[in-house]
Amino acid sequence: MKGINSTLLILLLGLLSGILLAPAFNLPLITTLICFGVALVLFAATHFILKKNFTKNSISSILAFVLFCCIGLIEVHFENPLQDDKHYLKQTDFNSEIQLKLTVLELLKPGFYDAKAIARVDEANKEYSSGKIILNIIKDSLNTKTTIQVDDIIYTKTQLLEISPPRAPYQFDYKKYLKNQDIYAQVNLKPLDFIKINPAERSLKGLASMFRNRINQKLESYDFNTKSKAVFNALLLGQRQDLSNELRADYINAGVIHILAVSGLHVGILMLILQFVLSPLGNYRKSRLIKTIIIIIAIWCFAFITGFSPSVLRAATMFTFIQVGLLLNQRQAGLNALITSAFILLLFKSQLIYEVGFQLSYAAVFFIMWLYPKFNALWEPKNKIVRYYWQLILVSLAAQLGVLPLSLYYFHQFPGMFLVANMVVLPAISFLLIYGLLIIFLSILNLLPQSLATGFDILLTWLNRFVSFIAEMDFLLLKNIYFSATLVLVTYLILISGGSLFDKITFKKSIFFLSAMILLPLTLITSAYLQSKPEFYVNHRYQKTIFTQKTTNRNLLLYSTEAEEIPPILVENFKENQLITEVKNDSLRHLYINSEKLILKIDSLSIFNIEGLNPDYIILTQSPKLNLDRLIKRYPNAKIIADGNNYKSYVDRWKQTCKQQKIPFHNTYEKGFYKIE
């Protein structure tokens, strides 16, 4: 692609490679620093020699790639909060009582019984400390609203709790998700368990939170519909905590959930609106500079209003570079800005690469910038209205193609009505964004008339009804789609190779495209072969016993007392992550065989002394009254597993016995499900 800054692209790819390879290699810091030093010396020497001889060579590009790969490895090491000796996990153990001083960083979507927030640990047992935790505050029955705000300082004496692992296979790994955000623990507090102090100074995030609270207080007197208010907060203030699960599901199923996550779409619309409004200033050098300054200031003011959420910061950074590129009349200003913003953001925070929003937003914007001009060149209608909707379809199609592999991988569903929904929703969002900003401005000045607020409420209500109508078309919503990480890579190869054919069909491009197409069935065949390995799972369900087994034929067997006890989500998760051919329900048994390994279930009958039996695994369930020492003596080589259908006091006693006897013990209460291969 002509006009792309190849040097910056190489540096970005090197940095990405280093960040992604860091967990796999896990090299000592000294080794990484030595590699960095060698790469730096070689790059400097090669660059000097080639520059002196006025020659170009791919060696310098390779060395630059390796150099920034090392930088990525080093960055991941230094960003790891557990490297800090003052991290709270270095100062205390889980479940031990600790005195904490916390600062609230961010409010999360509240649960039914508690308010949630991310907090920074400033002190642990009156000593300086660092790190982030999840703060859960149990709601008072008399006051269910959150009593904490961003920047509030909290003193408490409580237990540090470990975050629960997944209870069933392929369940959303909340523990891993928080770990990618450098959060390793949580605390549960009742309203009387802590002292809250207002800070002497507010951070930018704190000021933004106060600003949003003030807006919401101003709008309280205008009697907005509950759903409309929730969409208003999501659309304009970047706060999705008030969205109900039903409303969120409607927007997801309709394929328009992106409009409720303030990101590149909203910032891009704002930039285009400002460019149109400021167009009378002309296209002179000074006027372009003035327009750029105004637009950049407006973008970052919008980022402030929405609380500097990660998605808005990404978008604001990206469109700031786009504006600068347009000012300098750079060719491919958009794509170069995309590369530059991604490079800078990852250079400051490597863990962004693991955020789904980061991946989706950059994929969508890249494909819009790359594919939209190619699509638009195929046909350009003369009628303005037809042209507008044709361009809207092309933008939606390009964006959907860009995020499709990632969406299928993370969400395992495809909304068939996404084009229809976006043709209505996207034009509406442009108008609602302007209308909403006007509502915010007038409400702050106490000049908002009731009629204007009512009109906005009606428009948001219609929007919600339309989205719900689209979401109800279940027959066009494809669910439980299996899509692996390998398929994501193969699909992107197909899209990139196919898109390159739009410019000019050549022999090399055709071979590239056909090779990518051949990889697709080969990947599916390989996946089916690899998944033919039998697996047995002990799931964690409170007061329930549920086992799942995948056979060599990729049949899924579900063992339980009654089929009704099996949650549908358990089956859906397997279908989304495995090429399951058939699902069967079966009753619980005492003996199972998986890959020639014998599994013995001991329930309330406590029968285990069976002649000739030599199990590899023993599952304790239904709180059997047995002498564990005697059981271990009978089967000294067996691994012991306790599921969620046991009294916790029993499980704690068994754990201590196994620890004393040095026998492997897995408690699903603490460690989640257990997999036997």
From TrEMBL:
Subcellular location, principal: membrane
Keyword NAD: no
Record localization: Cell membrane
Protein's name in the database: Competence protein ComEC
Residue ranges of every copy of the DUF4131 domain listed in the record: 27-191
Keyword Phosphoprotein in annotation: no
GO cellular component terms, semicolon-separated: plasma membrane
InterPro entries, A to Z: ComEC_N, Competence_DNA_uptake, DUF4131
This protein's UniProt keywords: Cell membrane, Membrane, Transmembrane, Transmembrane helix
Residues that span the membrane, as ranges: 31-50, 62-78, 255-277, 289-305, 335-354, 360-377, 389-411, 417-445, 482-502, 511-530
Organism whose genome encodes this protein: Leeuwenhoekiella marinoflava
Organismal lineage: Bacteria, Pseudomonadati, Bacteroidota, Flavobacteriia, Flavobacteriales
